[in-house]
Amino acid sequence: ATFAYVLVHPDGRVTYSAAGHPPILHLQHNTVTRHSIENLPLAMFADISYPTAALEFRPGNVLVIMTDGLTEVFDREDRELGDSYISTILIRLSSQPLQQIADEIFRTARSFGKVTDDQSLIILRRRAGGSEFVFTA
Fold first, then answer.
1. How far is residue 82's CA from residue 44's CA, in Å, rounded to a whole number?
2. Would the pLDDT of 82 be above 70?
3. pLDDT in tens, 17-47
4. Tell me, what DSSP letter sits at residue 46?
5. Which residue of 15, 45, 50, 99 has the fewest CB atoms within a 10 Å radius of its CB?
6. d(Cα 28, Cα 77) in Å, to the nearest integer?
7. Of 61, 56, 59, which Cα lies nearest the Cα of 15?
8. Mean of the pLDDT values across residues 97-108?
9. Could you count the other beta carbons within 10 Å of the beta carbon of residue 127?
């Protein structure tokens, strides 16, 4: 099983890790960065450790955790959608409500090709007074 998590600390630092999971996308200053840690999927071997990393999550920044069902979508010519469309949507709709961003990501994936895997999405935005998030599956 794949897994990804983020832990948002009060000072704005985020600790994250992933296990066989797509990268976490980080929007800051109209640029999207992919954060990834090469770890094996969960439960493959006993007594394995999963390293973590950290990033700065400043006001206005957005983080996206998505399952590969949103990126591994194929059209009729067997072309893969990938994740660049998510970056484009994040930049274009960065000031919009998170649910609107999520709806556009799902709409784009489902109009590209047939859904063959689970499609889940978590989006977090840091505001000056705290954070907000949306989870959609």
1. 26
2. yes
3. 888 889 999 999 999 999 988 887 887 888 8
4. T
5. 45
6. 34
7. 56
8. 95
9. 10
Beta strands 130-136 and 121-127, pairing class:
antiparallel
Handedness of CA 70, 76, 78, 83 (dihedral sign): negative
Residue with tokens 């920044």: 61
Tokens 């859904």 — which residue? Answer: 115
Which amino acid is it at 14? V
Type of residue at 134: V
CA-to-CA dists, residue 127 to 62, 88, 95, 122, angstroms? 10, 21, 11, 16
pTM: 0.89
Report DSSP letters for 70-116, one per residue: GT--B-TT--B--SHHHHHHHHHTTTS-HHHHHHHHHHHHHHHS---
